[in-house]
Amino acid sequence: MAAAQESGREAVGERIEEIVRENFYDAQRAESFALPDASHGDAESFHAIVAEALVGLGASHTGRYEPDEIDYHELLDIFRFAVRKDLRRLFPPDGEVSYPGIGLIAKEVGGSLFVTDVYHAGTAARAGVREGDELLAVDGEPYGEIASFEGKAGKDVTLRLRRESEAEPVDLSVEVEAIRPNEMFTASISKSIRTFEHEGAKIGYIRLWSFTSAETRELVNEEIGTGRLSAADGLILDLRSRWGGAPLDAAEIFLGGTPPTEFRDREGNRFAGNVRWRKPVVAIIDEGTRSGLEAFAYALKTNGIPLVGARTARAVLAGTAFMLPDDSLLLLAVRDVVTDGRRLEETGVEPDIPVERDIRYENGDDPQFDAALRALAERL
Q1: CA distances from 157 to 117, 181, 185, 188 (A)
Q2: pLDDT band at 310, cuts 50/70/90?
Q3: pTM of the predicted protein model
């Protein structure tokens, strides 16, 4: 058994070296890439050795992901066309990527585990889980991104959370569901949309969790053109995302000078064509704003739209995904990206109005959103 595991890890290592040397965007660094002998030892040590070697390439969109991670499933769905021949085998019978979960992301901050993202369309949001909650346990056991929910779809789990430092923990019952990542992103964008009155004006808000699908663009066009956001006097555009994406011309929705066009059927129903938002807008960015959404944010900034928050991720290389022999996933940067003569990979995008956010125990507060609302009010 041990010999077979070592042989399997050796095959994975050799395949990683081959993929990097043949596809990594920097040919000079790719040529010299080599993994230490990582076949011996346990799986955890192997994972750490591979991760360190890939970090050594100094590039975004580069890493190895395993099936016990949410990132693995989200990236599989985002890059589904690159790995489509494997999807029916991994997710029979139809090849639709899914994982058991409740629609939250938790990360270690300051030595404790905190909820950093709650998808608007997930069951965690419906149960009242908030960004900033300290996540202590799931069903009395330490949290595992996939393991805590494996085999529990359609059933409830109990989350033990702490809302305030030193406060007594609270328990929330949350239903586990089979999550399809791209569907969750689009549904969460839709669920995030709201309008509210502020100082006599109607304010719209939308959070672009990801802009990697055509469905997202259609949703944004529809909601801005004839939908829930169309009557707003000003818009808060939240670019604090998970994976970014975005067509290269996505910012044209808010910047373009092309006259807007809509379609109307014989019953008088209106449908958005090429939508253009021409009213005040302010965008929120942070270290989660990455990839195509960084180019999106840069376009907004250079056209005078205020950015509020923190510097973006500096993750703007073009990547693609490769399946490895053990069904782990390799994400690799395969092309350099230059925007307006600049490599945002090196610099990111700085906010016009810097606002720090310590997510721990936020308990519903969001200083970056509050600052964006003040900035938008000044423009109305």
Answers
A1: 18, 20, 22, 21
A2: very high
A3: 0.93
